[in-house]
Amino acid sequence: MNQKDCEQQDKVIMFTDIHMFARLFETNDPRMVDFIQTFYEVSGDHIVGHGGQIIKYIGDAILAVFPADGTVKAVACAKAMRSSYRALLERFDLNRESELEVGVGAGTVFVGTFGHESRRSLDVLGEAVMETAMCMHYRGIAEEKDLWTYRSRDAITSIPLMTDRLVIVVDHSGYLSAILR
């Protein structure tokens, strides 16, 4: 792998993580396998259906990307995934505290095939990916500072929020991060 095997692209990045996943099941409960596979399938349908691409599964987390102009679709996808996750908890009769945490960010990333020769796979790397992963676990309240100057302002505000809270963070580089809570 070298630099000519990957390219820089503007992408909308989505990270999801199941909050308190380890506490949903007793140790080695066989239902965990069915639950996570069903979660992957349902979430994957939402991601692909909204124009996204699944990059990888990381335990109970998912990394996906959308085209650079896909902010609206990524946030709509996140809302649909959260709703489906709540339904999945009910389907598996899991009454423990859990939610699907979702971080949506945008920025320039390196897209390429990485890894050891025995297992290479498509991946995305860059500051925007790391920032999106970190903000996914943010549990603050939205503030409307200078967010309206960002180029995706209209895209984000055009989505009805219903009962979800949308935390929007814009870093010093102007990258957008939207976290559904």
Note the main attributes of this structure:
alpha+beta; 7-stranded antiparallel beta sheet; Alpha-Beta Plaits; 4 helices; 30% helix; 181 residues; 32% strand
Characterize the structure shown.
The chain is an alpha+beta fold and 181 residues long. The protein has one domain: Nucleotide cyclase, GGDEF domain (Alpha-Beta Plaits, 2-Layer Sandwich). The protein is 30% helix and 32% strand. The protein contains four helices and seven strands, in the order E-H-E-E-H-E-E-H-H-E-E. Strands 1, 2, 3, 4, 5, 6 and 7 form a seven-stranded antiparallel β-sheet that branches. Strand 4 and strand 5 form a beta hairpin. Helix 1 runs antiparallel to helix 2. The longest helix is centred in the middle third of the chain and has 21 residues. The radius of gyration is 17 Å and the shape is globular.
Question: What's this model, at a glance?
Answer:
By secondary structure, the protein is an alpha+beta fold.
CATH superfamily: Nucleotide cyclase, GGDEF domain
Nearest-angstrom radius of gyration?
17 Å
Q: Low-confidence parts lasting 5 or more residues at pLDDT below 50?
A: 139-167, 170-175
Task: Specify the CATH class.
Answer: Alpha Beta
CATH architecture descriptor = 2-Layer Sandwich
Separation of the first and last Cα atoms = 38 Å
Secondary structure category: alpha+beta
- The amount of helix comes to 25-40%
Average predicted confidence as pLDDT: 77
Strand content: 25-35%
Q: What kind of sheet is the major sheet?
A: 7 strands, antiparallel
Count the DSSP helices.
Answer: 4
Number of E-state strands: 7
